[in-house]
Amino acid sequence: MRPILFLAALLASTATAQSAPTLDAASAQAIVGGCVAHSTAKMQSHAIVVVDNGGHIVAALRMDGNSTGIFDFSLAKAQASAAWGFSTAQMLENARGTPGFADAPHVVIVPGGVPVFSADGKTRIGAVGVSGEAPADDAACAEAGIVAAKLRSSRAD
Predict the structure, then answer these.
(1) 151 Cβ contact list (under 8 Å, min separation 6)
(2) Which 8-state DSSP code applies to residue 101?
């Protein structure tokens, strides 16, 4: 490829990548805020971690009453959902039907990890992991945070 054509292709791909939806700090904080509101209303306490698609923390909070181990578990759930692109509840179902899946890298088979998609549902932008209560409550809290941020937990059809 000629140098000028290569440079034009590189600039075009950079412009496209920059226009794609991303998980910014404000959205991640909105997810955490939504989770806290949900948790507080139910008189529960969670550790909440929001990560980008690479599994890097964008926002997090360990509510009062949770140990550092609970925070670590929330991070593992978020990173698992970011790596696979689906919820840890779905990982549990997949593990039941697929021998060896539970032992694959970045698999967590406890509900509470949920992927985060853009508002239009077209682009996966990260994941949230919640822990500290019963697994169903953790998953509901994660969903509530995503909804509060006006994002989606599943891809649009």
Answers:
(1) 27, 31, 116, 117, 118, 119, 125
(2) G
Report pLDDT digits (tens) over 52-82. 999 999 999 999 998 889 999 999 999 999 9
Q: What is the CATH number of the domain that holds 140?
A: 3.30.450.150
pLDDT, the chain, mean:
90
Burial of 7 from C-beta contacts in 10 A (0-12 / 13-18 / 19+): exposed
Q: How far apart are the first and last CA of the chain?
A: 38
As for how many domains the chain has, the answer is 1
Range 55-88 burial, b when 16+ CB lie within 10 A, else e: beebbbbbbeebeeebbebbbbbbbbbbbbebbb
Answer yes or no: is 48 within a domain. Answer: yes
